[in-house]
Design a protein that fits this description.
Blueprint (H helix, E strand, L loop, with lengths): L5 E13 L5 E10 L4 E3 L2 E3 L6 H13 L1 E16 L2 E15 L9 E6 H7 L3 H11 L6 E7 L20 H15 L3 E6 L3 H14 L4 E2 L5 H4 L3 H10 L6 E6 L4 H12 L14 E7 L2 E8 L4
Parallel strand pairs: 1-6, 8-11, 9-10, 9-11
Antiparallel strand pairs: 1-2, 1-4, 2-3, 2-7, 5-6, 8-12, 12-13
Amino acid sequence: MSSNPIRAAGGVLWRLAASANGDNEVEVAIIHRPRYDDWSMPKGKLNPGEIELEGAVREIAEETGYRVTVGPPLGAVEYEKLGRPKIVRYWAMRAEGGMFVPSREVDELRWLPVDEAMGLITQPRDVSLLKQFAETPVLTKAVLLMRHASAGSRSDWKGDDADRPLDSAGRDQAEAMVWLLCRFDVREIHSAPPVRCTETAAPLAVAVGLSVREEPLISEDSYYGRERDALEFLRSVGTAGTGTVLCSQGGVIPDILRRLGKADGYDYPEPIVAKKGSVWSLTFADDKLYAAEYFPPLT
């Protein structure tokens, strides 16, 4: 595709509903757009400065009225729109409450089993997306492995390095992370003991009403020599349908990710980098790494 594509984002919005035999069945929401007279998945163009996940959550809220918990990434769909390439990224997103209200843009929403939705959807590319969703585990857990935010220079700090606090840029980064992390229904927050780590986790803890639990295993001082214990700890946190935040350090994150990928046979889609104030979203299905996505610092 040529340069300057139209960038957009959306999601496969799903819920569990009782089926005729009393079991829970996955249903997905598809929307009707009167302008095009089509049935599609909720999506839309990004606003200036908006990251793709933010755009996806916003578009789902605007077009369906539902709040969501973000699940596994579903990749991107590419096609041509008015002579320009268009790239739409999608995530599986579980409905957590809300109500659809018809509008000029979307006049109808239907909750359907996946097979029925495939029969009604208009575009073949959306059918392919639903097929991928059908093959994706939905009852997953998220481990959000973030590196502490900016904390100035170690050489300029005169005290114990463990006491080095965030600088002004780091405080801004920590605040900016809150929106992203809250999209994963965080129920636990663990942090390496250094102050710059606990201070990075603090704004999120306030936002979601949780305490920050210190965990030496994910600190640079304790990790090496106990790598196996740290990896077992990472696997053990959280439960299906929820998110757990681990705030760690640059000397730990790339190594533990490599070990996790090697153990689970997972090839990361991007280089394993971990800038200050960044997050790796790790999706686990049946205690095995299913997907990994890197979110660079938001400020």
